[in-house]
Amino acid sequence: QVQLVESGGGLVQFGDSLRLSCTASGRTASSLDMGWFRQVSGKEREFVAAMSWNSGKIYYTDSVKGRFTFSRDNAENTVYLQMNSLKPDDTAVYFCAAAEPSVHIVVRTTTVEYDYWGQGTQVTVSS
């Protein structure tokens, strides 16, 4: 069983930066497909970024390209989401997710493709 714990959320101003962390236990993060999603109250959880175990490639939703960076520290068994140039539209609860790897899947961008979820961390960007 994999447990994921996110941290790093908070209240920031327009243009500021935050770095979210997601630490995995029970498995090494480098052996899993990892993803970040976000959810605004009353709306569906949406894809933000994904890291493929198989290819090592990283994918981003268009709205965060050039501003967010997904990285991994194998020694810490932790993945990060560096968020720069934050906007009020980025306000949401951010979730870390993990999935058992598959050589047949290039990238996972939907919630149903992930097996494990963290509890979420709130990010609020004021204008």
- Beta-strand percent range: over 45%
The stretches of 5 or more residues where confidence is low (pLDDT under 50) are none
Structural category is: mainly beta
Let me know the average pLDDT: 94
- Shape from CA axes? globular
Please provide the count of β strands.
Answer: 11
Number of helices: 0
End-to-end span in angstroms?
Answer: 40 Å
Q: What series of H and E elements makes up the topology?
A: EEEEEEEEEEE
Helix content range:
under 10%
Largest sheet: 7 strands, mixed
- CA radius of gyration is 14 Å
Question: How would you explain this protein's 3D organization?
Answer:
The structure is a single chain. The chain has 127 residues and is mostly beta strands. Helices cover 0% and strands 48% of the residues. The protein has strands at residues 3-7, 10-13, 18-25, 33-39, 46-51, 58-60, 68-73, 78-83, 92-99, 116-117, 121-126. The strands form two sheets. Strands 2, 4, 5, 6, 9, 10 and 11 form a seven-stranded mixed beta sheet that branches. A four-stranded antiparallel beta sheet has the order 1-3-8-7, with no helix packed on it. The chain is globular and about 40 Å long. The N and C termini lie far apart (40 Å). The model has no long low-confidence stretch (mean pLDDT 94).
